[in-house]
Amino acid sequence: MTPIMIVTRPDPQGADFAAAIQAAWDGPIRIIRSPLLQIAPLAVADDLSGISAAIFTSVNGVAQAKALGLPPGIVAYCVGEQTANAAASVGFAPVTGPGDAAQLIALILAQRPAGVLAHIRGLHARGNIADALTDAGLPCRDVIAYDQHAKPLTDIAHNALQGQNPVVVPLFSARTCTIFQRSGSVSAPLHVVAISPAALPTDLHAVTTTVASAPDGPAMIRATLDCLRAIKEGDHGIPLA
């Protein structure tokens, strides 16, 4: 049976992920776009003119920083390659981090940049980078520049999850995982690919679950393709995470 992939990531990242899977996959696949988050800019009253470096943990932060008028050319510490590419495309000078927030904090502490930093982030975020850096002697402002509103699954996605074809659901955040778990029961053979252990559902009986080898887009693409190949070959022996 033709596998189905439900893309829950908001655009433009969701569209890019779907296109990457479609281009790399060598068999039939049905891709359903059903973003579970909607990015909504928030008004920011802070004066950011004195910021010497920015911190980005998502491409959404990059987009909002540009709208907030951060000067081009300033250093931007980015959680991973995709975010760094986005920062470079709008004129920032990116420093590419190793893929997660904890390691990004370690990188910044090792370099100890001068001046005041700003973490441009969404309302829903795990951990607190700004506090961690400030407590370590590097002043950092916490700038909440956008919200991530929950969205319901589309009717098409709901129907797929009640069908007989195998359904692959890549989950890119703990918040997306929570929203997906609350979306209702699943009777289709479910295969979950999570960007981190925090994004693994606990209340759904998936046939397989796996965690990407690194918390970034390229690793999620590889893990999703591996999952699709295992389904195609009839091998459901991917170890449960």
Task: Describe the protein in words.
There is one protein chain. By secondary structure, the protein is of the alpha/beta class. It has 2 domains: 4-36 and 151-232, Rossmann fold; 39-147, Rossmann fold. 33% of the residues lie in helices and 24% in strands. It is built from 8 helices and 11 strands. It has helices spanning 13-24, 59-68, 81-89, 101-111, 129-135, 155-161, 174-181, 217-232; strands at 4-7, 30-33, 37-41, 51-56, 75-78, 93-96, 116-122, 140-150, 167-171, 190-194, 208-211. The strands form 2 sheets. A 6-stranded mixed β-sheet has the order 3-8-7-4-5-6. The longest helix is centred in the last third of the chain and has 16 residues, at 217-232. The chain is elongated, with a radius of gyration of 19 Å. The relative contact order is 0.17. Residues 236-241 have low confidence and may be disordered.
